[in-house]
Amino acid sequence: MNREMVIVLDFGGQYNQLIARRVRECNVYCEIYSYKTDFEKIKALNPRGIIFTGGPNSCYEEGAPAYTKEIFELGIPVLGICYGSQLMMHLLGGKVEKAPVREYGKIEVTVDCASPLFENVSETTICWMSHNDYISAAAPGFRATAHTPDCPFAALENAEKKLYATQFHPEVLHTQEGQKMLSNFVRKICGCAGDWRMDSFVEESIRSIREKVGDGKVLCALSGGVDSSVAAVMLAKAVGDQLTCVFVDHGLLRKNEGDEVEAVFGPDGPYDLHFIRVNAQKRFYEKLRGVEDPEKKRKIIGEEFIRVFEDEAKKIGAVDFFVQGTIYPDVVESGDGGESTTIKSHHNVGGLPEHVDFKEIIEPLRNLFKDEVRKAGLELGIPDYLVFRQPFPGPGLGIRIVGEITAEKVAMVQDADAIWREEIAKAGWDTKVNQYFAALTNMRSVGVMGDERTYDYAIALRAVTTTDFMTAESAHIPWEVIEKTTSRIVNEVKHVNRVLYDCTGKPPATIEFE
Ligand code: XMP
Fold first, then answer.
1. How far is the CA of 309 from the centre of ligand 1 (A)?
2. pTM value?
3. Most CB atoms within 10 A, among 160, 251, 317, 468?
4. CA 402 to ligand 1 center in whole angstroms
5. Looking at the domain that runs over 400-501, which CATH code has it been given?
6. Cα angle vertex 509, ends 504, 514, to 5°?
């Protein structure tokens, strides 16, 4: 495709996905590649600009990540960020060494002279710094364009060669005018027109899916989550009744969730596709009977999911295409995209393709970030409640019921969770927290209801704020909201006589209970 693109060359920094997202926020398409990517491949991609990321190493040490300096001779603008800026200087004849003063946090940066990178940026501006090394001498042809009290080269440029460098991180929100700087780089310096838009992406994708599929048969495993829903609707719009969606209800979904999915994709919904809802609750509950160990529960749910799907796929027979809702962070995290090597430990339907008889996989969202998937969903006309769904784990309520799972316990946690979500939304907190749910603890305790002694379960309420779900903080939900929810739960949900609020962050807890 002849789309204008900026490349992020990944040197192992922690904000690399963020750089790509920020570039895309400028309506410029951006992909992440490891610094180990062959120079010829990078050239062949024909990027309009290249961004070197940060990274944890010292560029002057042996074995530190580097790149051929020929990359600076292509005439393509390059922006080096943090480690990337140091590497640029190191490769081009400047000097990088351990900084006498380490800078960390929000630091006031002074812009020294006019630079296209700082167009419309204030003369002093707060930027996010995090570095032990610093540039002590600029490479020939470069001049300093900004400094801080401890960093003489907070930014540099060789405008003639279109090479730019910042010691700070413009991609991080703490850098107050960072988005402006990135926009200056991609739009003004690289000259990108900014043609990356969701409406044209959706249109283009539908057209190319149609072309690829021809009159072939397509199968999609639908979980009801955002990604698989958006992928399914895109396919439905492209190929209509050549598509079959299989939705496995494992009996561990949130209250009414199965019906909500069916309302969109089922026979009464707007799409002309084959929708199969498998009500497999009994099968799952039977397999889970008596099992208390969290890992065993997860394994059983995952395996049973595959078995159920397999049974359905067998009935359908061989298909030409199998649709997956893989999104860009999955691609990067599994090592295909950037330098990051962490393999995603959470999978919704691990290993499914091995069990399906198909010729080819279609992953229409493979290049999108989560917020872009949601935008595509809205473009496709998917209802808000599906598009803005909070993350929901593949094993579902199975890992929100501590200990053994029974149908009664599922009903309890579904009801309590529905009340909690309703009260949070009413109070306007649904947009202020990133994930919130009720869990059923395995604890029973003594209470009193009317004149009767009770011995019933405790529900735990959870609400967290997080950016990446790797760490999280317990949210400060107003007491009135918790109080109202508590009162409703003990009154409306049978066999619950106590409600607890989980104040623990991650670490040391995890977001889910198991
Ligand atoms: P934890 O509990 O590990 O969860 O702090 C972090 C985020 O991952 C979600 N999660 C899962 N998602 N399959 C998924 O698709 C899983 O097995 C799974 N386990 C946890 C969790 O909801 C939270 O958003």
1. 22
2. 0.84
3. 251
4. 15
5. 3.30.300.10
6. 125
